[in-house]
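does this look right to u?? zinc ion version
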Amino acid sequence: MSNVYEARIHALRAKLEGAGIDGLYVTDEYNVSYLTGTRGKDCTLWISQTEAVIITDFRYREMAQNLNHLTLFETSLQVPYMDFFRGLSCSRIGVEKNSLPLEKYLDMTAQLSGKTLVPVSGLIEALRQIKDEEEIRRIVEAQKLGDKTFLHMLDFIKAGMTELEVAAELEYFFRKNGADGLSFSTIAVSGPNSSYPHGIPSERKLQKGDFLTLDFGCVYKGYCGDMTRTVAIGQPTDEMRKVYDIVLQAQLSACDHIRAGLTGVECDAFARDVIKAAGYGEFFGHSLGHAVGLQVHESPRYSMAYTDPIPENVIVSIEPGIYLPGKFGVRIEDLAIVKKDGIINLNNAPKELIVL
Ligand code: ZN
Ligand code: ZN
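got this back:
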């Protein structure tokens, strides 16, 4: 079981020298999870060419002792984490820019004489981009659970219930069917609230003539799902139908054309060009997609700023949207595994406009 984690640590070690560091103090909880296979909260790691140490306290002692590929350094009130770094013989200590608290950085700088802190970023995140079979399996399961939840919600949703009731049922259904938790706070927004791409569910009651956008995902064995569907409550107007159809065509175009080797910019354009051509370009203000994994938003991305090629075996969302302020919004989102000759879509839930 620990082999996969040893292999990941080995891959990280190969990058240390190039980053100009003797070892890396891993403080990002998802990076810790990636290298240990367990929860990363309240645990940090020290990885050098010769050491792989988990630094944590009594609460996680038993968990840490079961990780055979790591040595435990147990902290306590009497033994602060700083003691560990004082005892290191090497001098160039890599620290993760995105997660080391500034307070810790200042303390370490002040207290570790003869050692240099070297802020680095992206070393482990780059390894996390390409998913192995087990990671793919977990995300596939998370997405299947997403599809199942959506179908359940189609039976549940009725005019008159609040957005909060919709979100609560959706989250309850996830948990009841095997989810560890939520990838992010469920978005269930209706009517004019649906023009907020990341709106928060409120006590607003669903009304006939609304669009309802549901953006949701569960965590399955540590890995995140993410999908969006927009449904109509009662008959939509002609404008609503028109906008829905443009978003759907944009989404389908991206699904048909995205493949490994194209840049994030090129992938983004498959959907964006459809929306622009229909005259709604200014109302699609976010990127087409993001990778998922241990976190719901990872790299790479399909965006107008991501000029690198998308590698094979990343799992990325495809989620165009059009948001008309004060009126309504529409977004449709699937997750897909990117392959050389196209994508494998992980969602089967219907995308044609559903009128409830
Ligand atoms: Zn989403
Ligand atoms: Zn997403």
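The pocket of zinc ion (ligand 1) is lined by residues 215, 226, 228, 333 (CB under 6 Å). idk if thats expected tbh
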